[in-house]
Amino acid sequence: MPPALRASRDMQQPARMFLISHLFGPFLGHFITIYLYLLDPHPDYALWVLEASITAFWAFPLALRLTGAYTTLALISVQNLIFAVLWGSYHYGGLSSPFLPWFTVVPLLAFFYLGPAPGPRLLVLGMIAVNLTLFYFVYATGHPFPEHVPLSALAGIGLMSILCAAVYVSMMALSYAHIVANQSELEREVQDHRATALKLREAMADAEAANDAKSGFLAKMSHELRTPLNAVIGYSDMLLEGLAMKRGREQQIADLRKINGAGKHLLSLVTDVLDLSKIEAGKMPVFNERFDLDRLVDEIEAICRPLCATNGNAFIVERRGELGMVEGDITKLRQATVNLLSNAATLSKNGRVTLIVGREQRRSTDWIVVIIRDTGSRMSRESLPKLSHNFNRAEGWPEMKYGGAGIGLSLAQKLCLLMGADLEVEDEPGGGACFTIRLRASRAARRRIV
Fold first, then answer.
1. H/E element holding 376?
2. CA atoms of 450 and 444, how far apart (whole Å)
3. Mean pLDDT, the chain, as a whole number?
């Protein structure tokens, strides 16, 4: 079978039936020609033409393989069968010929080969009408049917012809039944897949409803938690200011600082959860505006230098070239960068955290490039994709030791996606990680709700 037909699901079965009938059908036809040869005392051109016409069917599989012209070859094959039936009927028995029952096979083959399409079927019916008209015209114009073998001697060959036709039709019917069975099985599989798809859609709808409920709950609880937390932080600040000038209160001051630090840490986590819930609910606005990139770096340095110093890390800030004015969402860029630096400061101890900010030209586009490097524990490449998942940490990381909810990296990634920025992560050769944010430096200043 040609590759083109084998690749087409609709044409596989008709082409298979075409090949089977042309490989095995001529054997049945040759039984009849051999019988005629034994009956005809002087076989002449009539028998040899019929023999050649039947033998020609074996050439069709090879022609199909070489040309792939399935429809054309099917029509030629049907015409060849019509010719063989009418030629044998004309020379052996005329209108009483035992070969005429084979004529009923012609429409059946046309249906098997060409399918239910009206065009080819009408063409086959036209071919049958034309050939019968010519057959009758030859008879009506005074060309009597020749008698190579007496009609009475053709009774046995009539039985053989009917038997061969019955075997041939049965073989084709079995093949067609196999096709119908396969189609029924395919329809059952399609119905099963549709039922599965319906269940999946229902499950997805339930999951989306649950996610919306979760996002709404987190947003509500975050607001409910932020008010008392701000009160705790505010009162602890007031108490620290009041005790700062008094001696002998070092233990109380230390305890208040722990309360203040824990409150700020918890407030930061609650804020991150609220932001994540807004992003997942599609309610996080994006504000694009012009801002000074140098000033943003100064702000980030002021926020993150104390964070890095907590674990004895050196904080290095590098500016590559002139930064100047850019356009984008300054709040989200600041938040994503601070989250990555906070993560780097947590994972590194007595090491180095580096912030590199610059601009570069790529494909005629001006880009902001923010690189955060740390010297913390080395990551495996298998763990990198997991770090962007909510509340997920790589197994064996120091963050497991130092604590953390594993939410910072996920929030940073979602903020970058929200801004249209790329966030890349690689493990450093000497240990630690390198995160890179790439964001267009120039874009239309507009407000977008994602």
1. none
2. 16
3. 79
